[in-house]
Amino acid sequence: MKKLFLWYSGTGTTAEHMRNFFNITASDTIKIAYVDGLGTENNRTESQTLSNNQTGSWTEWLMGFFRKTELLHDQAYGYKEKHQLAQLEHYFKLLEEIDPEKDNHVELIIGGHSRGAAAGVLGFITALYSCCKEGNTLEGSPIKKIRILGVDPVPGTKGNDLLGLESETAEFKKNPILNMLNFIESSSKKEHLFSVIYYAARFDARNEFKADDYWLNFYKSQLLNKQIDTEFYVGGFRHSAMVFEDDEISSLYNGNARPTALMKELVKRELGLPCANIVTLYNGLTATELTALSNLANDTGNTTLINRTNKSSYGSASVVYTGSSLQEIVKKITANGTKKSELNKANLINNRYLTL
User: Fold this and answer.
1) How far apart are CA 111 and CA 32, in angstroms?
2) CA 239 to CA 245: how far, in whole Å?
3) Maximum CA pair distance of the chain?
4) What is the pTM of this model?
5) How far apart are CA 70 and CA 15, in angstroms?
6) Which of these, 160, 258, 259, lies nearest to 216 by C-alpha position?
7) Is position 6 within any domain?
8) d(CA 244, CA 224)
9) CATH number of the domain within which 244 lies
10) CA–CA gap between residue 125 and residue 111 (Å, rounded)
């Protein structure tokens, strides 16, 4: 068996960071590729060829200024079609690791965080869906399983409308992820081809970082009628808590039961590597975070958690964000009569569940 792991990094996150974060060694049976996130120099280099004929210091400075401006624009507003196409190239390069003479069982693990999940991973699914619609299915291919990891998908302030689904019916577009996965499976004649992990942050103070509607609709539909093998996890009080230890607010947790550890162990498990017990780890993480929420309601909350869960914690960029702090939200909910022990089980905050 051969496993191919492709990771789409989030906004401003380099492939090198994620390579160091997961720290997984490639082998004959595990092949790995990391994609630089939107707004990084490497991502823009891959998606745009700049003119090479500029001369003189003034021209060079001006080109550098425009380059930096475009990077900041990408980080603020989201994907353009060229970025999505450039990132898909990594998938095709990874497929070159398949030896048709030797590899008769191949599994793909396709994951991403933030816009890497909202556009990169969905871009992969859409490209595969488009191929299947044209008759180029996975029937007869050595690919036996595709595992999808969507980690706190966020589309950016301008949304995620680059999936090429304009010609689909309104009903189809209500839940495009589920409909595309079902179509790929049926057209490829491969039952149970897909499994999905949706790992969402518990909270983010910025309204502009609302979790992706496509992924949330997929999750809700799976709760009512589970058609695709799906696991759902929620952890961390900041959007990047599962891939950056600083955003994790590490002082809140004990031992290995923390958002970054859960992320790493899930990937290890999917790659067939030795890993911690996911259920035990997740239960510990959940217990810590629910206790933290209850403490906020009782005015005994962790000071670092209070400081790191309001929009002002995002520094100079906070002036462009809107949103209430976690403590304000918790107090408002409990003031309306919700028991502290059942804090916000029903309500969504920016498309995220404070509790389950």
Assistant:
1) 11
2) 12
3) 68
4) 0.86
5) 19
6) 160
7) yes
8) 33
9) 3.40.50.1820
10) 11
**Alpha carbon distance 157, 135 (integer Å):** 35
Q: Hey, is 249 helix, strand or coil?
A: coil
Please report, in angstroms and rounded to a whole number, the separation of the first and last CA atoms in the chain.
36
In a domain, residue 289? The reply is no
C-alpha 335 chain-centroid distance: 33
**Residue 181 located in a structural domain:** yes
Question: What's the CA gap between 59 and 228, in Å, rounded?
Answer: 54
Q: Mean pLDDT of residues grouped by 10 in the chain (356 residues)? A: 94 92 96 82 47 39 37 40 52 77 92 91 86 87 95 75 72 93 96 97 94 93 93 96 95 94 98 98 96 89 93 90 93 79 74 86
Number of domains in the chain: 1
pLDDT tens digits along 326-338: 999 998 888 877 7
Q: What is the pLDDT of residues 243-269, one digit of tens each?
A: 999 999 999 998 899 999 999 999 999
Give the Cα separation of 342 and 356 in Å (integer).
9
Angle (CA) 134-135-138 rounded to 5° is 120
Look at residue 229 and give its three-state secondary structure.
strand
10 Å CB burial of residue 224 (0-12, 13-18, 19+) is: exposed
Q: Is residue 313 part of a domain?
A: no
- CA quadruple 150, 313, 34, 260: dihedral, nearest 10: -60
Beta bridge partners of 149: 111, 197
**93-128: b or e for each residue (b if 16 or more CB lie within 10 Å)?**
ebeebbeeeeeeebbbbbbbbbbbbbbbbbbbbbbb
In sequence order, the β-bridge partners of residue 112 are: 8, 150
**Dihedral, CA atoms, 281, 286, 287, 289, nearest 10 degrees?**
130
Domain carrying residue 80: 2-279
